[in-house]
Amino acid sequence: MSSQDNPEENLPAGQGAEEHSAELAKNPFADPGLPPHEHRIQDLDERAAKRSERVVAFLFTLSMLATAGFIASYVIFKPGKIVYIWPFGHVSALNFSLGLTLGLALFSIGAGAVHWARTLMSDVELVDERHDIEADADTKAKVIADFKQGAKDSVLGRRKLIRNSMFGALALVPLSGVVLLRDLGPLPEKKLRSTKWKKGSVIVNMNTNEPLRPEDVITGSLTFAKPEGLEETDHDFQNQIAKAALMIIRIAPENIKDKRELDWSHQGIVAYSKICTHVGCPISLYEQQTHHVLCPCHQSTFDLSDGARVIFGPAGHPLPQLRIGVNDEGYLEALGDFDQPVGPAFWERG
Prior knowledge:
Rieske Iron-sulfur Protein; 4-stranded antiparallel beta sheet; 9 helices; 13 strands; disordered N terminus; metal-binding; cell membrane; transmembrane; respiratory chain; Rieske_Fe-S_prot_C
């Protein structure tokens, strides 16, 4: 018989039940001690314990099946498929199945763990007096002994059905997170390496929406531009301008330090991507005297007179340059696409 089976053993030393009752009458807020321990049916009947074991294993197995259903949902349902489900109405079949299966998988693991703890693990309450943070050798030995006893009482080693099904459920659930990586979107393929700019694309002023002539760009000025034909009413305008946004700057040819930059310019007019190569913020600050442009997000600074190389800040590589010329009508035009992918670095970038 444990001390919890006899409530008088929980009373302070030398104090009987009558004295304890008298003490409670004087001080109703005194510590009443632990109530008598009541055995559960699983503690007394091995058949009941086996039933609880099967319930826990069922819940863990249900979690495994729900996780498999979660992964299968990605294969079975198309993202745009809409179905009617009472009482929710018309919903996305993919989203509904993902939420249902993942919720069931996580709930089953939690419910199985709770049922295991409430019916099969030891429920004997142990009382320890508070002690100093620095434990003595006897206390440390007692903690280790209590831990070993708790591990034994958990019946994890003896209840192999629970153990194996639990490990299976815990091993499969993380696969849901791996499958969720699909929601990051489709693979970019070559989309990051090309923009709307191509040979013959006329350069259009973003503010006036008019084609640019060389005489429209004065020395020291900064003009934002886009390719002709890209309109704000286009359904994919934001996606396209995020790669095609352009800066037009006129620098005296004798002040351009990079030979290739000079070859790709027209009478000192140079064209560079407006998208910062750090995290993709739009560059908007220009220092006329130094020919430096500054990204307002994290202060990356580029020298437009020297190939737009990075001279300060966290950006990892220069701004891509667009080779430009003049068409038969006298308008500035692109002679191809950017020489490098626009924006921040990515894994496949050379």
